[in-house]
Design brief:
By secondary structure, this protein is α/β, with parallel strands linked by helices. It has 2 domains: 286 residues, Succinyl-CoA synthetase domains (Rossmann fold), CATH 3.40.50; 154 residues, Rossmann fold. Helix content is 39%, strand content 18%. The chain has a 7-stranded mixed beta sheet, with helices on one face. Helix 3 packs parallel to helix 4. The longest helix has 15 residues. The two termini are 33 Å apart.
Length: 444
Amino acid sequence: MKEFFEAKSIAVVGVSRDKRKVGSIIFNQLLKNFKGKLYGINPNVNTLYGCKIYKNLSSINSPVDLVVVAIPSKFVIDVIKELPSVKCKHVVIITAGFKEIGNEELELKLKKEMDKRDIKAVGVNCLGIYDSFSGIDAIFLPSDRVHRPGKGGISFICQSGAVGGAVLDLLASKGYGISKFISYGNATNLDSIDYLEYLGKDKNTKVICMYIEGLSDGKKFMEICREIDKPIIILKGGLTKAGNKAALSHTGALAGDPRVYLGAFKQAGIIYADSLENLFDYGRMLEKSIKPKGNKVQVVTNGGGFGILSVDSIVLNNLALADISKENKKALKKIFPKLVIVDNPMDLVGDATDERYDIALEYCCKDKNIDIILITLDYQTPLITSNIVNVISKYKNEKPIIVSLTGGEPTEKIRKILESRGIVCFDYPEKAVRAIKKLVDYST
């Protein structure tokens, strides 16, 4: 499947004079970022967007690694029949209008034509694919509406184009990176199992996140998941009876009994996320954080209320509260002002400085009773400066360090800098602790 993401030549069937058309959007996205050979196909024009446009695939007279199809459904089979003329066996079919609207006969006929020629296809009825490393951007949503994330270690397999597009834009806005994105729609030819197998071996993918509505072969899917030595996090659509019915009409996928899915996920070592937000919270945690030795969490805060909320959440998530060693407690009490509470939470109080955090982190990192450090940072207090990012970054490889910071624009700037340095941040301590729980469960 590497030709989908490492193609050196791409043809887009359905390039139009209208820049708003799907084919034109994809063609222009590739013009911006793709470094290989690019061919546009339209039988009615000779040039578009400063490029020569070809009448059909046969007129290219050169091999093509990948073909992207964005034309009405009734013409798609004609393109498949023409693929051998450019020695292409990989195609992304954006086109809708198949079994998701009840046109199962056309989709079955299409599948037979692809199988006859050993063609591998992403789609039909999909958003497309994206690879931040190779520059292949075959997503039909314009980049001024859906921003593309930069390079990262999470790959996202998504059955829904709408969910996929919104998530990409959100990840980009928060400065989170991604490796590969695959929207596969009806899974006419290739399905989630094929993508899992590929990403399990992909060097740029550290964590696999998935949104699925249904599976064609649940048993094989679970077997593949067991074989992959990477975290796999899944959000399942269609858990309710109403959602199941909606899934069937959306991509033609029968969602199935939720109890069967959830039980099978657990047996296969799959991490289940119950929301899109949690899907990527868990993904970021498992991508960036080093593995903890145990489940003992130490809270360090300069806001008492956040410390209390953090401790409550740690207990409710069946994690352990770390107990600082007597030796380190004694040493810290000598260093810190009397108002500072050297316990769990360790409350550095409202006049905390960057230096006070530095000292606290130094002692927590060398304390054998502590496995994980959760910092709840109130950046609004006057004595904390932007240098706090350097203080926290200094210890990121000592133990898992997770930061919770709540606030507006100034706080957001600090969060983005920390994230860019590989430190996982959350808006609220409860979200941070839920992600810590997944990290501990996966690591131990």
